[in-house]
Design a protein that fits this description.
The complex is a heterodimer. Chain A is an all-beta fold. Chain A has no helices and twelve strands. The termini of chain A are far apart. By secondary structure, chain B is an all-beta fold. Chain B has no helices and eleven strands. In chain B, strand 5 (43-51) and strand 6 form a beta hairpin. Classes of the chains: A mainly beta, B mainly beta. Chains A and B meet through strand 5, strand 6, strand 10 and strand 11 of A and strand 4, strand 5, strand 9 and strand 10 of B.
Amino acid sequence: AQKITQTQPGMFVQEKEAVTLDCTYDTSDQSYGLFWYKQPSSGEMIFLIYQGSYDEQNATEGRYSLNFQKARKSANLVISASQLGDSAMYFCAMREKNTGNQFYFGTGTSLTVIP
Amino acid sequence: NAGVTQTPKFRILKIGQSMTLQCAQDMNHNYMYWYRQDPGMGLKLIYYSVGAGITDKGEVPNGYNVSRSTTEDFPLRLELAAPSQTSVYFCASRQALNSNQPQHFGDGTRLSIL
């Protein structure tokens, strides 16, 4: 079974609108962390936001927030007020304590911001 | 402030050749990782290391070898290059003290096997 599932291969959003990128995860571990990374066309991986399994509040970092629903095992990324520079691939990743702190990545979502 | 440095950035190999992808970090991170990213796909873990002298296999280790003789360096070795190893390779490091620490990535090495 896939550890991380991102079901949206491609998404489009109008500039200045909000967009939600979906991520579901599969783990039996009680201690884990969820990360979102952005990969622009230039190829580098940029860390955006983190959510711990024991965190009670949803994580926020500027225009990025994480909609964490533990019972549903989902950790969706919300980008508010989209900008043209947000056009990129977005990857959800999970770190499990029980598997030696390995990271598992989803297949990514390509976001295109339309002017 | 170099972070994670990967060399080379690009390389073309012939089938059967060998090479070493270099990775160095200057952040004194304990954990280091090697991933490959095939076109349109996410990252798959090849090998990782939790400290000098300790390495372990990830999801796709076949055809690769690693060593970790120092905290800073984590080279990835391809012994007999095959077309299936054409990919973009990313090295990453992470400080293990806090669970919320993300991985810091290098800029990647684009490798083509012809």
